[in-house]
């Protein structure tokens, strides 16, 4: 279940003693399915307006020279306009997109999970980098390292557990300073410890969640093993409560739909890493 441990420091960390548990820099030319599952839409959550499919239309690996700023290669998740798609459950969608995870292939308890990502501007986009466990949600202990709804000046982090979930989840936003925004490369990470979660952007702490904070609402559910998730949702509850758009799609306005139709929308992930401090 757990990937082989390696002491190779793939990217700079704050401690020389860090041990890398999981690493992917998407340099092999294709998605490593020994590490990642590609998910296909079954149940629909959050009133999102895309269907996840296993397709080269939505999930590809690009060479470094094809993505400005990428170091070795890059995972590309690109939503597409595909009107009238009917899922196996009989649900109809006009958009397809991609979602991958490491469930049953890699999991960990405590450590630092990080991803270097570049996000597109556009109201109603909802890409995310997050962790989840194996219990039924929200007892699974969802850890949202990075969520983004297309407003380039901010990203958010959150946790969800019993009695502090959904719209009552513990959440915080980082507003970028100066000429920075989410369309540039940033490293989004969480330092997960037995009594706290420290969310960071480019190494700067942006949110701290402690056990007493969750205990005020419900039980701390961040001692169980978690797996990694990367996805690119469209529309849905979080974008809608930010932009108030109801048509043509819930949380997804016309101008964003046009960008998707023109093939101009994608997220790029340069690398993903999970490490632990061997001294702890």
Task: Please outline the helices and strands.
Elements: E1 18-24, E2 37-38, E3 50-52, E4 59-63, E5 73-77, E6 80-86, E7 92-97, E8 99-101, E9 111-118, E10 125-132, E11 142-147, E12 154-160, E13 170-175, E14 186-193, E15 196-201, E16 204-210, H1 211-215, E17 227-234, H2 237-243, H3 254-261, E18 267-277
Parallel strand pairs: 3-7
Antiparallel strand pairs: 1-18, 2-8, 4-5, 5-18, 6-7, 8-17, 9-14, 9-18, 10-11, 10-17, 11-12, 12-13, 14-15, 15-16
Structural summary, described in words:
- The longest helix has 8 residues, at 254-261.
- Mean pLDDT is 93; it is low at 1-9.
- The chain has helices spanning 211-215, 237-243, 254-261; strands at 18-24, 37-38, 50-52, 59-63, 73-77, 80-86, 92-97, 99-101, 111-118, 125-132, 142-147, 154-160, 170-175, 186-193, 196-201, 204-210, 227-234, 267-277.
- The two termini are 22 Å apart.
- It contains 3 helices and 18 strands.
- Strand 15 and strand 16 (204-210) form a beta hairpin.
- The chain is mainly β and 280 residues long.
- The strands form 3 sheets. Strands 1, 4, 5, 9, 14, 15, 16 and 18 form an 8-stranded antiparallel β-sheet that branches.
- It is globular, with a radius of gyration of 18 Å.
Give a short summary of the structure.
By secondary structure, the chain is mainly beta. It has 3 helices and 18 strands.
